[in-house]
Write a structure and sequence with these properties.
The chain has about 375 residues and is an alpha/beta fold. The chain has two domains: about 200 residues, Rossmann fold; about 170 residues, Glycogen Phosphorylase B (Rossmann fold), CATH 3.40.50.2000. The protein is about 40% helix and about 15% strand. The strands form two sheets. A six-stranded parallel β-sheet has the order 2-1-3-4-5-6, with helices on both faces. Strands 9-8-7-10-11-12 form a six-stranded parallel β-sheet, with helices on both faces. α8 packs parallel to α9 and α8 packs across α14. The protein is globular and about 70 Å long.
């Protein structure tokens, strides 16, 4: 097939999946992308027009399948290109959504954006979510969106749409994290190295993480620290204060733009910690596990899907108040926990495994097996 992949917010996990699929698919994949620099709000409003003009300018060869990501107003795009793609199979891939994404304190949700998510799903022939948690939480909240209005809520469409949505985890280029030679890890008796490789934003719970580290310090528990990840504001007070408080144990700090440094730091670490209040999949944790880190994660969001039931007892804490205690226990047991094969747990998401799943999923509905037009459902 010739697949046209429309990525209106080509950064972070959105870009990782688009580029990885294009490299590893057996099909021909054309990427049309826009950088995140314009802001996600403008991408959701304006990208459909930009992409509609771009496909006409390029005069693309025949397209068998369109895959759009969640930052695109797919209904508007298809309306503007109906002469080109009126009979083309179309899928929507949901990295995130604007209905259940938690807002920072003091901000009110603009319902125009979740409405774009909803109408894009209605316009698509198939919808793919990156986790079951993402799918289930979205559809649990969705009736409240049209349900705010006094008539013509069309709530039966939501049930039809949910039944026809699938889970397709993101493929990740984990092989790029392999080192040419084994890395040095902490020897017995050396302080374990704790890793934070999440975005530096409120939804990843940095205050909770640093509060737990402060409590460990007060208990006299020794550790080393790597804090890396993308950030909007590297001078955010939370991170500035943490860098000063833990200066004597920091081995890595800040955004790491080059692959070599990033993978060296991941292989150096022993325990990867999350305190997130929002996570629709968890690529950063998967990358850390692939590099040999023991995960310590909140028992919420998409994280339980990442860890086999046989390993969940040692990998989760139930609420934020438990984090310091669970982290101290994990530090004590780190050497034995690291003998568990977390790399194998993560490796299933490498594109060497995932490409065939993507190709099969897309080819299946593109051939017309089991899908149709949601808006025409009876």
């Amino acid at each position: 097939m010739h697949i046209l992949w429309l990525d209106a917010f080509h950064g972070g996990s959105h870009a990782v999946v688009a580029q990885g699929f294009a490299r590893h698919s057996q099909h021909t994949v054309t990427l049309l992308t826009l950088s995140p620099a314009g802001g996600w709000r403008w991408r959701m409003r304006g990208a459909a027009i930009t992409f509609a003009r771009e496909v006409r300018r390029r005069a693309l060869p025949s397209v068998d399948l369109i895959v759009a990501t969640d930052m695109l107003d797919l209904a508007t795009f298809l309306g503007l290109t109906r002469d080109l793609f009126g009979k083309t199979a179309t899928a929507l891939y949901m990295h995130e959504n604007q209905l259940t994404y938690p807002l920072p304190p003091g901000r009110t949700r603009d319902l125009a954006f979740p409405w774009i998510n909803y109408t894009s799903m209605l316009a698509a022939d198939a919808v793919f979510f990156n986790s079951a948690f993402h799918r289930d939480s979205f559809f649990a909240a969705l009736p409240g969106l049209p349900g705010r209005y006094h008539d013509h809520q069309e709530l039966d469409l939501i049930e039809t749409l949910a039944a026809r949505s699938q889970v397709l985890p993101p493929g990740i280029d984990l092989a790029r994290l392999d080192l040419p030679s084994p890395s040095r890890r902490a020897s017995a008796g050396e302080p374990p190295i704790l890793l934070w490789n999440s975005r530096w934003e409120y939804d990843k719970g940095p205050e909770t993480f640093f509060a737990a580290l402060t409590e460990l310090r007060q208990r006299g528990i020794d550790f080393r620290l790597i804090v890396i990840g993308e950030h909007i504001d590297p001078h955010h007070p939370t991170f500035v204060a943490a860098r000063e408080a833990f200066a004597d144990c920091i081995l890595g700090w800040g955004y790491v733009p080059d692959l070599e440094t990033y993978r060296q730091l991941l292989h150096q670490a022993d325990i990867v910690v999350s305190a997130a209040i929002q996570e629709f999949f968890g690529i950063a944790v998967v990358e850390a596990m692939y590099c040999g880190c023991v995960p310590l994660l909140p028992r919420r969001l998409s994280y339980p899907e990442l860890i086999p039931s046989s390993l969940q007892l040692c990998c989760f804490y139930d609420d934020d108040a438990q984090l310091a205690n669970r982290l101290s226990e994990t530090i004590v047991a780190a050497s034995s926990l690291k003998a568990l094969d977390f790399r194998a747990v993560a490796a299933q998401y490498d594109w060497s495994q995932m490409a065939a799943r993507y190709d099969a999923a897309f080819a299946g509905f593109a051939a017309g097996r089991g899908y149709g037009t949601i808006a025409g459902a009876e």
